[in-house]
Amino acid sequence: MEKLRNGYLFPEISMRREAHQKKYPDAKVISLGIGDTTEPIPSIITSAMAEYSLALSTPEGYQGYGPEKGQKSLRKAIAEKIYPNMGITDTDVFISDGAQCDIARLQMLFGRDVTIAVQDPTFPGYVDTGVIMGQTGAPDESGRYAGIEYMRCAPENAFFPDLATVPRTDVIFFCSPNNPTGHAASRDQLRQLVDFARGNGSIVVFDSAYSSYVSGDQLPRSIYEIPGAREVAIEISSFSKFAGFTGVRLGWAVVPDELLYADGTSVARDFDRVVCTTFNGASSVAQVGGLACLETEEGREAVRRVVGKYKENTRVLVDTFTALGKEVYGGDDSPYVWVRFPGQRSWDVFGEILEKTHVITVPGSGFGPGGEGFIRVSAFNSKEKVVEACARLTSFLA
Amino acid sequence: MEKLRNGYLFPEISMRREAHQKKYPDAKVISLGIGDTTEPIPSIITSAMAEYSLALSTPEGYQGYGPEKGQKSLRKAIAEKIYPNMGITDTDVFISDGAQCDIARLQMLFGRDVTIAVQDPTFPGYVDTGVIMGQTGAPDESGRYAGIEYMRCAPENAFFPDLATVPRTDVIFFCSPNNPTGHAASRDQLRQLVDFARGNGSIVVFDSAYSSYVSGDQLPRSIYEIPGAREVAIEISSFSKFAGFTGVRLGWAVVPDELLYADGTSVARDFDRVVCTTFNGASSVAQVGGLACLETEEGREAVRRVVGKYKENTRVLVDTFTALGKEVYGGDDSPYVWVRFPGQRSWDVFGEILEKTHVITVPGSGFGPGGEGFIRVSAFNSKEKVVEACARLTSFLA
């Protein structure tokens, strides 16, 4: 724990926000910071949750413990609607209370003695859970932990590492569309990743929490669109950004039957044991809500509409920063816009923007040393507030 | 993971139940096995959950991420209603998705290099998470893992170990009222435990998931009733058995401000970091339900009534086994009855009872080698089914 000297990124930002609000009590702070959903959940979903909740007060409707890996109906809906024609079945799916929690459970499965690789920059949870598990040495000055392979992903390499130069690790965490860069890996890039993992006997943990933001049909939304991926990849994902479930809490992990250790034994069997031992299943109410998102065309369409609203915000953000002459990445296939401030430090840019515009962003360096010089701007807010934030940013940065 | 050769107890029982049902398709199986609540949740609680769920579809009622450690209102209600006059404040309380999940998070906090002690028998989660974390050696023939201190708790020692003979460990897991024996430690026993931990510089993880089943006012319901406990003890607890939330999922951990490592730094600060990194908070819907259990006298009374129903069942079970001439323990202060079958193996007793009466119990040896020769019988079922199960048990065992 001592090695985790820095605070976790988002609580840190939240403390700075509070300090700012204290300094400027009348300021109308707009958060384009933590990726926290703001749009109401479609009522087809919340009605199902309310109905289920009320039924818990009746002898017929009461339910206690569900299966640790989740209700079969929901696992089946995920297999069929999210992974059509990809060879994923309900038994491969483990329902969870969110992707972040699954990262921790996977790290418990992997244990202290594995080596891991991460994109740089990326969501900090992969590294931080690795540090907690004792997989790493101490951090250097830039914050890189000894023992972790950082795969630089920058505009200069199309946000994809040259795998020929990446040393073998036991596990590769790969987030696409990437948080924070917003880059969605191409089919060819994912093919390279799968081949690399197969060649090295590595497990890929593919985080597709933002897959519903991918535009068009060209880019893969799941790693299982790549042939052979079922033998090397675990996929984790979430209802948080897909259906506004950040507070309701629901996610899933796919651990395919075909994924085996070098000795031929099943990874899914061990993960099942971890889930049964460290988790008692996602809230039954949340699972009912998740099923309502997926089982009818009406539910699916309602969820798509909400994602569409955030995608409109992304467009406004991209246009604003582009008009300001900034290098802007992401946004097409993710709710995040990744903006470069050459020669500046991320926390300084974060601080200046907050001071001058009362807009919260996220400093890119919080996602790894490779994020230095960037900020991440989130589309998760109302259209009105995003437009207002963009007006303030334009006055300040123009 | 390889060391965890045996399946987790409850999924194992569930497989045997399925096999039995296949063999006897017409048998009316009654489960007095896994401690799964069966009584409907009082409507004052589910109405609050339903109302909150529906409000998630409105701009005013929508909420995204809450604080990782839970809503302050709920933390405050727990501090005030569960720990009155014990020096526990809302900042000491971490809301979770259940005690089992908190055990895993605490084990992530402790890491691989700690030594642990557990009661024998006890809830298997403490040992199993320790094995997953790599704290132990291999199991011996009786299932005892090398490196874990097993503190025998049997009728012969009033279910409390002679601490003078127990070696020091970094962490002591202690469950009271104990699952499975049903024994609630006396004030004097807990005083001994706290003194022992203070003398050794150990942390006690006190699991009070069944505290609402304690009868009368003599026995402590929390370790914080013991002076000095705040400096040595973490308490974990749950709404599962208290309010029928086994499926809804809600619990809490108390990590008092006063609990420090040997170097004087705060345990709570590190646990907060683990919670923020590996967990995103309990479902907001569940938290609203939890608050409704605690904030009004009406809610508290409703929850007490449900616990009272299970306690009536416990009485029936105790009377039945007593009338059969069995040695019976527990039941007064817990929903579990612990019955001795001298000279027999637990799994054999479990199997015979299932075969002859179609009643599911839990083999005592599933809780540790010290449970061999016992079975645990749960009061979590309807009165009608408990009475029917008792009639069958009487015919078979008489």
Automatic annotation (TrEMBL), chains A, B:
InterPro entries: Aminotransferase_I/II_large, DapL/ALD1, PyrdxlP-dep_Trfase, PyrdxlP-dep_Trfase_major, PyrdxlP-dep_Trfase_small. Its cofactor is pyridoxal 5'-phosphate. One of its GO terms (biological process) is systemic acquired resistance, salicylic acid mediated signaling pathway. Gene3D superfamilies: Aspartate Aminotransferase, domain 1, Type I PLP-dependent aspartate aminotransferase-like (Major domain). Pfam families: Aminotran_1_2. Keywords: Aminotransferase, Pyridoxal phosphate, Transferase. Residues 28-393 form the Aminotransferase class I/classII large domain. NCBIfam families: DAPAT_plant. Belongs to the class-I pyridoxal-phosphate-dependent aminotransferase family. LL-diaminopimelate aminotransferase subfamily. This is Aminotransferase class I/classII large domain-containing protein. It comes from Lolium multiflorum.
